[in-house]
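Good day; I would like, with your permission, to put a structural problem before you. What I wish to show you is a protein chain and, alongside it, a tokenised description of its three-dimensional fold. Here, with my thanks, is the record as I have it:
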Amino acid sequence: MSDSALTTEKYIEHHLSHLSFNLQTMSFGEGGGFWTLHVDTLLTSIVLGIILFGGLRLIATRMQAVPGFMQSIAELLIEFVGNTVYEIFHKKNKFVSSLALTIFLWVFAMNALDLLPLDLFPRLLELFGMHKFKLVPTTDPNATFGISMSVFFLIIFFNIKVKRGHLFKELLSFPFGIYAFPVNIIFRVIEECVKPLTLSLRLFGNMFAGELIFILIAIMPWWVQWPPGAIWAIFHIFVITLQAFLFMMLTIIYLGMAHENH
């Protein structure tokens, strides 16, 4: 392998590597597997959450009769998500509306980091000794699966809370009738387990592919990068918005199904 090919390979590997902390060895950058934390994913997600929802809290405490720009944007988002939940639930549900808005804004903010210059933050963080730092949390399956598992636990919770005794009857009799209850139970377990997988893998797959394309554009000669980079960045704005919207919509639909009796 030539030196240029080796350099390209290391560049791609560098941008796809996480700043990891191993809980068994209590050290950075060693090992992998279940006991390894992706520090970059955790740190970026937490900081984004504080900035985003702290900002919304600040807007809420400074509401005015004549709304400014940020208040107008916040009100439009709240109204849009509230109407979306109402169309599925046919009644107002403050908890699901708040959850859906939180998921949409948080996932969108994490996705939007993919639009920043690829080498900007890694170069800055190298000054502080962080030689590996993957900036976009949603390109990490641990992050997307973690969010989807939170939704999954809420699905189970509302199934039990809303349906109560009817849930057991539903497990045994739907969709093929009570006499096919073993098949019905297997189908229901598969259906419920697929929900967090579809949520997490769809978001991860699209965002990872988008980041990989940005990396491939970055290894081109600098005088060739700008046209494909600009075109892909414009298209990627649509991708990051759509993926946040789909995650939110599927969450609302799944929770709506948990509130309905067959």
Q: What stands out?
A: Strands lie at 20-22, 27-28, 36-38. Residues 3-258 form one domain. The CA atoms of residues 96 and 252 lie 7 Å apart. The chain has one domain: 3-258.
